[in-house]
C-alpha cells in the first residue's frame, strides 16, 4: 500500500503518514496508528491522545484484542468518519454557546444562579472525542469480542432484572444508596429455565466479570454488556440488540480504579447511529479508605430543538456520614450550577439509608471494588 499523503482533517490541514500500513498486523497497533495520526493532525487533544494510548498499550488489552480481524484498507474510512464526528461535535459546542450564553434569559440565569458553567460544559466537550474514537474502535466488535470472552467462561450466575444500569454490578457504587426504591437484587440459587427478563453474569477463572446479558426470552437478548480490563480501567461496552444479528454499541462506561477502590466513572450514551448525545460522570473522594464525598455531573448535548435552559451542566455533591460500626448510615445533598451553589433549606438534612443497604457499605464491601464472583 505504501505511504498515504494529503489526508485532510477537520480544519483543512493535511498530515503525512510516516509508517507503512501494510506492516500493521494487530488491531491495537492499527488503532494506535489511527490515534497517532489524529493527534499529529491536531484532531484530538493531548489528554485524549494520552488516554487512548494508555488503553492501547496496556498489555492485557493487547492480549485480548490481539486476534481481532480488521482491514488496514479501511484506514481512510475510519479517519473520515471520525473527523466528521468531530466536526459535528464542534458544531454542537458552538450551538450550545450561542443558544445558551447568547440568549438574554440564559445570560440572566447565569448571572443569578450559576458561576463558571461554561468551564464545566467545556470539560464534556473536551472528553467527548475520546469516546467518539472508542465507539468507532469497538462499534463492530460485538461478535468477535463475545467469542473471545465466551472462551474464558468459567462461572456464571443469574439474577432478576432490577432496573439499575448493570443491575447487581451497577456501574455506580452509590446509586442504589441514594435512590431509595432501587436495589441491586440477589442471585438465583440455580439457573432458571425461563430466561425472560433475567440477567446472566459470566466470569473467568479468577472470578472477574466478563459479560452481562439481559434476556428478552430464551432465544434473544435485549442487551449484552462486554468487559475489557486494563491496569487502571474497566471498559464496559453495552450493545443493544435490534435483531438477532444486529447489535449496536449504545453505551460506553469507563470505571477508573486507584488501587482496589473505584475513583470515578464516566458513562457516555450514543444514538443507534453512533451520535454522542449524553454524558455523565461521578467522582469519589475517600478519607482513610472510606468514601467521604461523591460529585455527579451530567450533560445532554444539543439536538435539534433544545431550549437555552436545557444546556446547563448540573452538579450534585453528596457528603456521606459513617456510623461507629463502620457503615454509611446517610448522606447530605447539595446542588450546584457550575461553581454556583443552589441554596435550599435541606442542605444539612441527612437522608438515611435502609439497614439492609447499610450492611453493604463497609470499607471492604464489593461495591467499592472490581466486580468479582468471589466478592459479594
Describe the structure.
By secondary structure, the chain is α+β, with helices and mostly antiparallel strands. The chain contains nine helices and 15 strands. Strands 3, 4, 5, 6, 7, 8, 9, 10, 11, 12, 13, 14 and 15 form a 13-stranded antiparallel β-sheet that branches. A two-stranded antiparallel ribbon has the order 1-2. Strand 7 and strand 8 form a beta hairpin. Helix 1 runs antiparallel to helix 2. It is globular and about 60 Å long. The N and C termini lie far apart (53 Å). 30% of the residues are buried.
How would you classify the quaternary structure? Answer: single chain
Which structural class matches the secondary elements?
alpha+beta
Helix content: 25-40%
Distance between the termini: 53 Å
Topology:
Elements: E1 7-8, E2 14-15, H1 27-40, H2 46-56, H3 59-64, H4 75-101, H5 104-113, H6 117-138, H7 142-150, E3 155-160, H8 175-178, E4 198-203, E5 209-217, E6 220-229, E7 233-243, E8 246-258, E9 261-270, E10 276-287, E11 290-300, E12 314-322, E13 328-337, E14 340-342, E15 351-352, H9 355-358
Amino acid at each position: 500500500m505504501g505511504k498515504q499523503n494529503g489526508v485532510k482533517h477537520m480544519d483543512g490541514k493535511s498530515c503525512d503518514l510516516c509508517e507503512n500500513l501494510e506492516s500493521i498486523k494487530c488491531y491495537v497497533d492499527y488503532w494506535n496508528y489511527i490515534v497517532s495520526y489524529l493527534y499529529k493532525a491536531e484532531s484530538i487533544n493531548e489528554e485524549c491522545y494520552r488516554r487512548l494510548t494508555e488503553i492501547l498499550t496496556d498489555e492485557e488489552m493487547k492480549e485480548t484484542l490481539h486476534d481481532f480481524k480488521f482491514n488496514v484498507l479501511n484506514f481512510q474510512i475510519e479517519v473520515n468518519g471520525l473527523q466528521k464526528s468531530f466536526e459535528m461535535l464542534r458544531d454542537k459546542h458552538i450551538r450550545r454557546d450561542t443558544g445558551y450564553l447568547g440568549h438574554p434569559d440564559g445570560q440572566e440565569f447565569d448571572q443569578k444562579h450559576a458561576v463558571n458553567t461554561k468551564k464545566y460544559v467545556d470539560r464534556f466537550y473536551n472528553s467527548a472525542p475520546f469516546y467518539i474514537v472508542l465507539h468507532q474502535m469497538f462499534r463492530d466488535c460485538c461478535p468477535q469480542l463475545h467469542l473471545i470472552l465466551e472462551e474464558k467462561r468459567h462461572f456464571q450466575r443469574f439474577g432478576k432484572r432490577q432496573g439499575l444500569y448493570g443491575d447487581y454490578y451497577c456501574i455506580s457504587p452509590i446509586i442504589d444508596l441514594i435512590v431509595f426504591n432501587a436495589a441491586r437484587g440477589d442471585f438465583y440459587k440455580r439457573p432458571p429455565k425461563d430466561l425472560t427478563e433475567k440477567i446472566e453474569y459470566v466470569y473467568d477463572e479468577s472470578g472477574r466479570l466478563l459479560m452481562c446479558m439481559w434476556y428478552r426470552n430464551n432465544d434473544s437478548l435485549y442487551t449484552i454488556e462486554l468487559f475489557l480490563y486494563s491496569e487502571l480501567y474497566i471498559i464496559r461496552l453495552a450493545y443493544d440488540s435490534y435483531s438477532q444479528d444486529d447489535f449496536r454499541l449504545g453505551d460506553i462506561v469507563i470505571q477508573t480504579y486507584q488501587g482496589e477502590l473505584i475513583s470515578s466513572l464516566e458513562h457516555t450514551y450514543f444514538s443507534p447511529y453512533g451520535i454522542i448525545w449524553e454524558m455523565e460522570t461521578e467522582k469519589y473522594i475517600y478519607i482513610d479508605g472510606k468514601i467521604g464525598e461523591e460529585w455527579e455531573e451530567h450533560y445532554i448535548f444539543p439536538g435539534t430543538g433544545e431550549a437555552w435552559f436545557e444546556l446547563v451542566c448540573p452538579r450534585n455533591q453528596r457528603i456521606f456520614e459513617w456510623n461507629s460500626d463502620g457503615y454509611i448510615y446517610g448522606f447530605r445533598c447539595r446542588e450546584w450550577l457550575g461553581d454556583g451553589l443552589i441554596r435550599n433549606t435541606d442542605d444539612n438534612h441527612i437522608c438515611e439509608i435502609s439497614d439492609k443497604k447499610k450492611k453493604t457499605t463497609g470499607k471492604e464491601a464489593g461495591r467499592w471494588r472490581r466486580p468479582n464472583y468471589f466478592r459479594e
